Amino acid sequence: MEATANIPHYYLYGDQGADVELDLLNIEIIRERSGPNDWRIRPHAHPDHMQVLLVREGGGTIRMEELTLTIPVPGVLVIPAGIVHQIDFNPGTDGFVVTAALGCLKAAAASDPRLLDAASRAAVYSLEGTGVNIAAVTDTFYWLHREYVWSAPGRRTAILAQFMRILVVVLRLSITQEDPRIIAPDRDYDLLARYRALLEEHFRIERSPAFYADALAVTPARLNAACKNRAGKTASDLLYERVTIEAKRYLVYTESSVAQVAHMTGFDDPAYFNRFFTRQVGISPGAYRKQVAGSHE
């Protein structure tokens, strides 16, 4: 497979847009995206999102990194963030694809670290002979899709609840099936994963890539190279994105003032926070809050 730096990075396959609901998820029906693409999903990666697929009928093959596997039917596929993958579906294949932001994954897995661990391992699982109730698994994906397309009260909570059920299914499959994992073959992926974990711990107070490089026992140049290769972004880009996502959450989901949001995201100077946010997003924090509020009226 060609170098990952030359492989497209998407939120959704074929979608270059970056203005997405970064801390939630998307679910769609397999045939709706794969059919128009001649049932072939060409090599790509999702730097900030992971995927869980339920293949109900059809099948095909999936290549994750250097390993190609047959897709079992019915089966569940787990594609962690950053894993380069290609899928060749048999014509007529159907099921669901969940694309979840890492923040959404973290929120849904907060009650049990094993959920996060199972969702972070690339794997292909058959549902046959596992003891897992196939009808219940299908129903969970179906209801997640239904909640996603509805605009009913409690939509976000319902979506997270159904996604948590899917993660429980993944956890149980990981326990019942022997060695289903596809291990990422290079150190760049491992370094990026450890960098993201450190960001979660320190992004509010540590804004220097040199701090993270030192904590990871690598040079800043080495950290940058891994981030560019596996995420298509610099270490600073990923750090600033993480800060911006947190600021957006506070602006959208709390009534805190802009000055309070600045403090909660680690800025001593609200004016500097305003400049930072405007540079990252293109509009001021106050304007962003009004824009999002207006879009949900």
UniProtKB/TrEMBL annotation:
Keyword presence, Transcription: yes
HTH araC/xylS-type domain residues: 193-291
CDD domains named in the record: cupin_HpaA-like_N (cd06999)
Record has DNA-binding as a keyword: yes
InterPro entries, per the entry: Cupin_HpaA-like_N, Homeodomain-like_sf, HTH_AraC, RmlC-like_jellyroll, RmlC_Cupin_sf, Tscrpt_reg_AraC-type_HTH
Transmembrane domains' residue ranges: none
A Pfam family recorded for this sequence: HTH_18
UniProt keyword terms in alphabetical order: DNA-binding, Transcription, Transcription regulation
Protein name, UniProt field: Helix-turn-helix domain-containing protein
